[in-house]
């Protein structure tokens, strides 16, 4: 059986920067499940037509097609219950909060910090689509969204609970990483792949966690191609 | 056996405004455990000497004395396992985040909004102590900390993940409230008891949750005395 993950790519096919796809790659690695990725561009809508929608991640697991990063976590826990990601029902209810914390607190701060870096890695054929959809969503131009010092200060504040938690534990989920860590870390991989900006200082407890997350699963994150590795791109 | 909770009070003995004590009152109600409270002032340090420290909440449960709101949650779950607050180990790891989210994201925003209201309810004999310790901690005067419009805008941002979660579920912990809800709601009771300020608009999903939390356990929060109920205080 082949397990396939459709994974957003940028100017270079090896440059994979979707925070949602990163969640899924960590989740698959956590389960020890082998998979192949298929590079996908924002405008390759017909490539995903079989999934009934037009966004990644899309996981094709034998006969099953699953979309949405959080739904993929649920699917993986159901079909491959070993090495649980979300945990029991009480833990799962709380995992939802980490999803929203990443998407509603961290991502808006990070995007201000790396907006133009992000736009720089979008593949040429996707740029018009990307600009149009994002500017419509933000109600502003990409250039207006880009405000790194404001973004970093917003991020600094948003990271406070993580900082406190990571002062007492190696991972958000305690001694070992699980769904909470992966749901949040996707946002950090997003920034790391598209930008050379330092989001946190190395004295920050969050920094140590980022380093540990990069090393997990054979250096999954650390070995990922970054824009700084693409010649002439940065 | 008498179960006693030492509970911070203000200008009126019935005005109980500590967010940490509110967490514990909700936790005790969640377990269906009867208790009495003892009003305590910030400067009544000798009253707590038996607990080995000088802050509330302090719960005396028969022979046991437990301090710190989160430790009290752990204690209650251990000794009274029915109606779990923190849940299994995986859920508990995530509960820690809600503690820090309330203390490091919500409380700093709320305090800017209600600082002078809060100072107004501090009992006369506690005022000098309160001002001195808080100003030392903030590195600013209370008057400088008080910045309601900045506080509300910071709170608006900090509430984003709660808003998203409460759009899909009645409580942070899902269909029924548990530790995550109580850990966070303490901050809302703190603001509610000392101030008439509206923290969220009634169109906000957080508003509906606050209403549900107020009604829980026989209207525990709704029936609490507020500064607006104390004649001449507001």
From TrEMBL, chains A, B:
Residues 8-84 form the GST N-terminal domain. It comes from the Bacteria. InterPro entries: Glutathione-S-Trfase_C_sf (IPR036282), Glutathione_S-Trfase (IPR040079), Glutathione_S-Trfase_N (IPR004045), GST_UstS-like_C (IPR054416), Thioredoxin-like_sf (IPR036249). PROSITE patterns: GST_NTER (PS50404). This is Glutathione S-transferase N-terminal domain-containing protein. It comes from Modicisalibacter tunisiensis.
